[in-house]
Amino acid sequence: MNPVLDWTPPPFPPAKVLDGRYCRLEPIDPTRHFDEIWTAMAGHDALWEWMPAHPPEDKAAYGELLATMVAKPGIVPFAVIDKADGKAKGHLWLMEIRPEQGVFEVGYITYSPSLQRTRVASEAIYLCGAYGFSLGYRRYEWKCNNLNEPSKRAALRFGFQYEGLFRQHMVVKGRNRDTAWFSITDGEWPKRAEAFERWLAPENFDAEGRQKTSLTDFMKQAKAA
Q: In DSSP terms, which residues pair with 33 in a beta bridge?
């Protein structure tokens, strides 16, 4: 029960552009981002397997979903832009934001196949963490269905620490969801951020874009330091 000295609850994160080396996160604009996101996501219904929403039935339904995100209180939804071609290829949210406790989460991560397993996809998670901690937040969360093994592996690769299982936490699409919880604290973030930055550095990739040292290895080094 350590005392928290000289800490003031941070502001709710203002919606703003978060700019990285490979990725840019832009507050979702249902008009400007719609066509690009639909083009990247259309026909890939399997991407929605673990999401609380069903796959949009058509382009109009996807537009309604994006508009709902923008109107939803308590979240900051971002379009994920690949700076290589300037196109939006997915979206994610800052959510479960509790300024009074200094907690924020990255979630509703919906990446098109062209975005998955790219530097853009990983840098987006880094940009979210860097933004929240820069505002004074104390805890960065990642949660997922315990059956979603790729999401759990991703959390560990990104430097989140597994904290435990919330059994029967939710009913999603008519099914029970046991939720796996992960986090990074403000005291851990500087080393985690350094690991991200080392991995994202251009010199960590060869001429064909293959990584020389994995993010997992950089995170292991950060945790051991």
A: none
